[in-house]
Specification:
The protein is of the alpha/beta class. It is built from eleven helices and eight strands. α10 runs antiparallel to α11. The radius of gyration is 17 Å and the shape is globular. Bound molecules: NADP nicotinamide-adenine-dinucleotide phosphate.
Length: about 250
């Protein structure tokens, strides 16, 4: 497939590497221009282009920018044909994104994105931490392969999203419609807890809409307390341990 990725940060970089290694024709862009994209992002054959070029003549667009940057990319997406599958990896963190009133009132994050973009999206790769995403992918059928939930309203879009998740090294789990996708938002049991497919269904069912935002903010506070003094920075597994303790 021809795939355009907007955002080559923690998640977009691994998406670029894995999807081009899987044989897809991948273009990537950030906000600052193709010359600023690191060579390792392009190591498996992806091409660096401008943000406007990344979304033209592709079968799939993947948005991997912070939620509060989505309004900047929305005008580019408005010209993308309806047949193109748009996949969004974003999560809402008020400490980073600023408070968004509709989401604070309980609007499902992916439905806020749908409203903003004026078109359907697939929600995928939002519930895997960047370190796990970069280092824990395995071939299909491997024991203990980590699962990634995928939510969508359109069956064709869901199939495309789930297929690409599998190609990045993770079991794709059908997490239902976008209206149900609050079950994979920050603070829920399946969020960045590195579960298997078997564990994921129970975790989605156990999600608690009222408590997840509080748990999300507790996780941010705990991480901020540990990061930054140069001596106590947690290892990559700290985040998985923390999310399991707080969210499950
Ligand atoms: N980090 C995680 O563990 C993780 C896990 C799952 C999901 N997510 C979610 O996935 C999304 C991306 O997260 P991340 O951690 O990968 O972010 P990140 O490391 O901060 O990278 C963000 C990327 O988006 C690009 N970008 C920002 N505004 C843009 C614009 N207007 N046009 C094109 N590119 C733009 C940035 O480019 P410039 O540097 O040039 O601005 C950068 O390449 C977020 O919503 C996040 O919540 C993150």
């Amino acid at each position: 497939m021809r795939i355009g990725i907007l955002g080559v940060g923690h998640i977009g970089k691994t998406l670029s590497q894995r999807l081009s290694a899987a044989g897809h024709d991948v273009k990537v862009a950030n906000s600052r221009g193709p010359d600023t994209i690191d060579a390792d992002v392009l190591g498996s054959g992806a091409r660096a282009v401008s943000a406007a070029e990344a979304v033209v003549d592709v079968d799939v667009v993947i948005l991997s920018v912070p939620l509060n940057r989505l309004p900047q990319v929305a005008p580019l997406i408005s010209d993308v044909p309806a047949a193109t599958v748009v996949i969004d990896t974003s999560n809402y963190y008020p400490a980073r994104d600023g408070e968004i009133e509709a989401i604070e009132r309980g609007q499902v994050e992916s439905l806020w994105v749908v409203e903003l973009l004026g078109r359907p999206v697939v929600k995928a790769w939002n519930a895997i931490g960047s370190d796990s995403f970069a280092s824990k992918g395995k071939p299909a059928g491997s024991p203990g392969r980590i699962a990634v939930p995928v939510a969508a309203d359109d069956e064709r879009d869901r199939k495309v999203g789930m297929g690409l998740v599998e190609e990045t090294g993770f079991d794709a789990v059908d997490a239902g419609t976008l209206a149900e996708s609050w079950r994979q938002q920050p603070g829920t049991p399946c969020y960045c807890t590195d579960l298997t497919r078997e564990e994921m269904m129970g975790a989605l069912a156990a999600a608690d809409a009222a408590r997840s935002p509080k748990r999300r903010d507790l996780a941010v506070a705990a991480i901020m307390e540990r990061v930054g003094d140069g001596t106590t920075n947690p290892d990559a597994e700290y985040s998985v341990r923390l999310h399991r303790a707080l969210f499950m």
